[in-house]
Amino acid sequence: MRGFAAGLRRLIAKCIEWATLIAQYVLAVAGSCFAVCVPLIRHIDEGLDPNAGSRRYAVYASYDRHSIVADYVVAQVEALSRIGYRIVVVLTSPYARTTETSKLATHSWKIVHRRNFGHDFGCYKTGIQQIERLQEAESLILMNDSCYGPLFDLARVERLAREDGADIWGITDSWWKSYHLQSYYLRLGNRAINSEAFQRFWATLLPYQPRNLVVRLGEIRLTQYLVRDRLTTGVLCPYHAVAEKALELILPRINGDEAGLLPSEIHYLQWLAEQISKGTDLNPMHPFWDVLIVEFACPFIKRGLLRSNPTGVPGLFDWPSLLATYTGYNVGLIDRHLQIR
Question: How much is the average pLDDT of 77-91?
Answer without folding.
Answer: 98
